[in-house]
Design a protein that fits this description.
Blueprint (H helix, E strand, L loop, with lengths): L3 E14 L5 E3 L8 H9 L4 E4 L2 H4 L8 H4 L16 H12 L3 E6 L18 H16 L12 E4 L14 H18 L4 E7 L11 H11 L6 E8 L2 H17 L6 E9 L15 H13 L7 E4 L4 E2 L6 E2 L3 E2 L1 H12 L4 E7 L4 E7 L5 E8 L5 E6 L8 E5 L4 E4 L4 E3 L2 E5 L4 E9 L2
Parallel strand pairs: 1-16, 2-3, 2-9, 3-4, 4-5, 5-6, 6-7, 7-8, 8-9, 10-11
Antiparallel strand pairs: 1-13, 11-12, 13-14, 14-15, 15-21, 16-20, 17-18, 17-21, 19-20
Length: 435
């Protein structure tokens, strides 16, 4: 065990801009509290992916294709066969509170049996026409719609997972994606089409050739892939770095060198099934892990990350529990939102792999640092900065006793800021580091 972790901030070395990759799945509930909605706005979520929204908005007919176009046997060209009202209200609430939208075209996951919607459409052409009319509604005003200019449109979710999401073959999904991408890009050239939102890029579920087969199909058939989406739930921070680099390598191999990478479901895989304790999905451990991953994303070729889940849920997976208020995760995302005010990134290093540091400056040349001690195993953390000044700083801490509140248990020794590290996991936000 290291007794002291050594961190350094070099305000003289620019690292570009801090990437705002703190996207999420789900916004505030359709009928959420004003406080939660304001909290969502304060988190400065850049992109909200619409997936599983119907599961958590109990009783609402929103987002999923079968909720918007409820009778498959109806005429897909007749606007009277579409129901948009609740989805309109849900998306409006998200947009009005500062987030753009990634609209997943498909269905929510069906965890139990039997499965009602997680199967290939009977008629691919009809399904694509329905998708086209949904885009027309939100981007071109069709059927009392809007001009919201929603950019990202994703085809299905986790088709490699099996019956809970896709009962068809890999080839059937490839063909559905190809049919949708070709027609939708032809009709709406300004949007970005993507997928396949795989549960594993290495074939844990669909086999090792699932993703290469998809990329090969798209390349050989000249199918657009504006963004490649994939998912990862893991405990080790390094696993999130590895999956992004692996995705970039695979995309480049198949000549998709300009395709964006969206890790649009990610979360801690500790106590995955919600049995409480220090490894639970709303624990301090989980929250610090989230801040560490957001820091790790800064140095890999990722274009967007969407945490599952940012919004309000009845479970412990989100930033708010229904009727129970903020979780520890909220404070991790709040700290990252605050570091975005110091968006000019500067060099920062740590000699302990699980203690991550993200540092930046604002337009007034004040400095800030976000330190994520994820099971770092140190008794204290010492930080040196090139300005050699800590006077007037503010330090907030997230640990088992504090939820991003003022920390006074620190001191300066020989020009180094010394932070306590008595908890297994903790997070510090240091602001107003002098010029």
């Amino acid at each position: 065990m290291n007794k002291i972790a050594h961190l350094e901030i070099d305000f003289t070395t620019s690292k570009g801009q801090i990437k705002q990759i703190n996207g999420g799945n789900l916004g505030p509930l359709l009928r959420d509290s004003a406080e939660n909605i304001q909290d969502f706005k304060n988190l400065r979520i850049p992109l909200t992916r619409l997936h599983d929204d119907a599961i958590f908005n109990s009783g609402a007919r929103i987002v999923d294709i079968h909720h918007i176009f409820g009778n498959w046997d109806a005429d897909e060209h007749d606007k009277r066969n579409y129901y948009f009202q609740q989805t309109d209200d849900y998306i409006r609430q998200i947009i009005e509170n500062g987030s753009a939208i990634c609209f997943r075209l498909g269905t929510s996951i069906e965890g139990g049996a039997p499965h009602y919607y997680a199967f290939p459409p009977e008629d691919f052409s009809k399904w694509v026409t329905i998708c086209s009319n949904i885009i027309r509604h939100y981007n071109e005003g069709w059927h009392n719609g809007y001009n919201w200019h929603i950019k990202y449109w994703e085809i299905w979710n986790e088709p490699d997972l099996g019956p809970a999401m896709w009962s068809g073959t890999a080839q059937q999904y490839y063909k559905l994606y190809g049919a949708a991408a070709k027609r939708l890009k032809a009709h709406f050239p300004q949007i970005k089409i993507g997928g396949p939102a795989v549960a594993s890029i290495k074939g844990t579920f669909g086999g090792p050739d699932w993703v290469p087969g998809f990329l090969r199909y798209c390349r050989n058939n000249e199918v657009d892939l504006d963004f490649f989406s994939c998912h990862r739930y893991a405990t080790d921070i390094e696993e999130f770095e590895i999956i992004v680099r692996d995705a970039r390598e695979m995309l480049d191999e198949f000549e998709f060198v300009d395709t964006e990478i969206h890790l649009n479901e990610w979360h801690y895989r500790g106590n995955f099934f919600g049995n409480g304790g220090p490894e639970a999905m709303d624990s301090v451990t989980c929250a610090v892990h989230a801040a560490a991953v957001l820091t790790a994303f800064q140095d890999v070729p990722i274009d967007m990350g969407c945490f599952y889940i940012v919004g309000t849920t009845p479970s412990e997976w989100g930033c708010w529990k229904r009727r129970a208020g903020r979780t520890n995760l909220f404070y991790a995302f709040k700290a990252f939102a605050q570091i975005l005010d110091y968006c000019d990134r500067v060099a920062a290093t740590s000699d302990v792999a699980n203690i991550r540091i993200l540092a930046g400056m604002n337009s007034q040349k004040q400095g800030a640092a976000l330190i994520s001690n994820f099971k770092g195993g140190c008794e204290s953390i010492e930080i040196e900065n090139s300005r050699n000044a800590w006077k007037g700083i503010e330090v907030a801490v997230l640990n088992e006793h504090c939820q991003l509140t003022s920390c006074t248990d620190w001191h300066v020794n020989s020009g180094k800021l010394i932070l306590p590290s008595t908890d297994e996991s903790s997070m510090y936000l240091i602001t107003k580091i002098a010029q």
